Amino acid sequence: MTEPKHVNPEEEYFARQNMATLKKLHNEERSKMAQEEKERLKQLHWMHCPKDGSELQQVLFRGVAVDKCFTCGGVFLDNGELEKLAGKESQFVNAVLSLFKYE
Predict the structure, then answer these.
(1) Is the dihedral of CA 43, 44, 47, 50 positive or negative?
(2) Is pTM, for the whole model, over 0.70?
(3) How many C-beta atoms surround the C-beta of residue 2 within 10 A?
(4) Which residues contact 1 (CB under 8 A, 6 or more apart)?
(5) Which of 73, 46, 45 is nearest to 59 (CA)?
(6) Sign of the CA dihedral 35, 40, 46, 50?
(7) Using CA atoms, how far apart are residues 68 and 73, in angstroms rounded to an integer?
(8) Regions of the chain where pLDDT drops below 70
(9) 11-43 as b/e, with b when 16 or more CB fall inside 10 Å?
(10) Which of 90, 91, 95, 86 is CA-nearest to residue 61?
(11) Domain edges within the chain
């Protein structure tokens, strides 16, 4: 049997530093790629109907610009638009929003 090779503490220190640096670079690259992918998907899907992919058009309804698909007839609201349309005091709106609320 061979004797275990003695590891120089200085070499071990620099190897760990190098590994930590490589891990940090890898995580930064992964984060950058995730952000780029998020931006790519946003550009791909922005103002397109989630049901059929057709282009959405903004239409003014009761003073609020809502997104409408003229292909399937769907109407889509951005954050806060439901409250503007129904009023903040609406019990129905508050009940619906409590189902979908995330923080």
Answers:
(1) negative
(2) no
(3) 4
(4) none
(5) 73
(6) negative
(7) 7
(8) 1-5, 7, 88-93, 96-97, 99-103
(9) eeeeeeeeeeeeeeeeeeeeeeeeeeeeeeeee
(10) 86
(11) 6-46, 57-100
Nearest to 63 by CA among 88, 77, 93, 84: 84
Query: Element (H or E) spanning 14, and its range?
Result: helix 9-45
Q: What is the mean pLDDT of the chain?
A: 84
* Tokens at 16, concatenated: 């760990």
Phi, psi of 7 (to 5 degrees): -100, 125
DSSP summary character for residue 93: H
With 0-12 / 13-18 / 19 or more C-beta atoms within 10 angstroms meaning exposed / middle / buried, residue 8 is exposed
